[in-house]
Amino acid sequence: MASASATPTRSRRQARNRRAGGRARAPARLLAVLVALALGAGAAVAAGALGPLGDAVREITLPLEHEDVIRAQSAEKRLDPALVAAVIYEESRFRDQTSHAGARGLMQITPDTADFIAQDSGGTAFVQADLATPELNIAYGTYYLRYLIDRFDGDETLAIAAYNAGETNVNRWIERAGGREAFDPASHIPFPETRHYVENVAERRAEYREHYSSELGL
Hints:
Elements: H1 2-41, H2 43-48, H3 52-61, H4 67-77, H5 81-92, H6 111-121, H7 134-151, H8 156-165, H9 167-177, H10 185-188, H11 192-211
Helix pairs in contact: 1-3, 4-7, 5-11, 7-8, 8-9, 8-11
């Protein structure tokens, strides 16, 4: 008799535990679904429609870190902080990493580019390991971005293309297009990766301006 009465009691307790566990896991599952929807439908649009929960989704789909450094370096280099944030997002998703080509840090600076920046900016104490430091990486990345914008007479699209594909390639594409005035990124950038990079940076820039204007000092 004891065993007969114990079985349904244990079953009811297990059922309650399953329901409780399901409730505990539900928010995590819901957030995962919302993130998937945001990635598929457009992170900014989806997150904006979700209210407070959208803020959590946005932190995953459109992260922002080191905003104080971004603000300071953008002001010093006369850059739009939203543009800098967009480049960091496209380069590293705000994660410190090293690429197969040896590019390092948040703004994915190659050793050769870093040496050029150090020499051009007077950074005599620079060593390659410094690129792992967010403050220095962003300082060097914004320096190089400003350099490219100046090299292309203020044309930010060409500068962004050069940040991805290199200055030499962009100069070659401009020549093939018949000059800067005739250059069309959609038609004259032969590298699919660079075309998408330019488009994505422009899109992310608009999203950072919309959703992080206060954090970026805009």
